[in-house]
Amino acid sequence: MHLLRVMRSAGMIGGLGPESTIDYYRSIIARVRARNPGAGYPHVIINSLDVDKAIAMLDAGRLGDLADYIVAGVESLVRAGAEFGFIAANTPHLVFGEVQRRSAIPLLSIVRATCDYAKALGVKKIGLFGTGFTMRASFYPEEFERAGIAMVRPKDSEREFIHRKYIDELLKNRFLPETKRQILGIAQRMKTEDHIEAMVLAGTELPLLLRDSGSADLQFLDTTVIHVEAIVNELLG
Q1: pLDDT in the model for residue 212
Q2: Peptide bond preceding 38: is omega within 30 degrees of 0, i.e. cis?
Q3: What is the Cα 43 distance to its own chain's centre?
Q4: Residue 117 and residue 32 share a domain
Q5: What digits encode the pLDDT tens for the residues 116-140?
Q6: Residues 76, 14: contact at Cβ < 8 Å?
């Protein structure tokens, strides 16, 4: 049990949405078990926020309110004993810089972890899937451009389609074969026309729909798996 005693306490901002939060928790436990068999279980404190409330703020462009909401969530984690934190979602990283600035504990960015992973792969051109908020925003392209990786977004009509499916289906735990087929078709078009080498699944519900759907010529970067690895690194010190 010695290894368990030295594990750090992680704080998760979850609920954005709930299905991916469950996936995060299971994945963290599985990775700790795999890397340290018999070490026990990590201490993970989960503060599950209201995804509908967050989406309403995003729809209204109230990013300041969203930052306040997440900061309050992080403060609860700190009071509960978290030594570092993370947001188990991509879209809230729109306000990550503000939240980190106001946080009493370090936060692990899913965007930075994914960018580091892509850089290690050596890719130079990559696609972006996520909510409409994420695909329209600059926080992913700017991070990747600083690393020398060009990022391509879907066409406007494709972004609208993916966003609607995300909000109406994926966040409601509906993963339909037809939706999967159509989104994979968009990825293939981007490979053929935009010459992307990989696709960032920058929405933590997307891997629940598309996991294991990548191919030898188009790798899908599962941001949940990548983020979890960085979290476990921090947990295990």
Answers
A1: 80
A2: no
A3: 20
A4: no
A5: 999 999 999 999 999 999 999 999 9
A6: no
CA 104, distance to chain mean position in Å, is: 22
For 50, the domain range is 2-109+226-236
195 and 211 belong to one structural domain: yes
CATH at 28: 3.40.50.1860
Tell me the β-bridge partners of 44: 10
Cα distance between residue 121 and residue 237, in whole Å: 24
- Specify whether 122 is located in the same domain as 162: yes
Based on the fold, state whether residues 71 and 141 are members of the same structural domain. Answer: no
Q: What is the pLDDT of residue 211?
A: 81
Q: Which residues of 117-147 are buried (b: 16+ CB within 10 A; e: fewer)?
A: bbeeeebeebbbbbbbbbbebebbbebbeee
Whether residues 231 and 174 fall in one domain: no
Structure tokens at 76: 């609860």
Tally of domains within the chain:
2
Mean pLDDT of the chain: 95
SS3 66: helix
How many CA atoms within 13 Å lie on the side-chain side of 207?
23
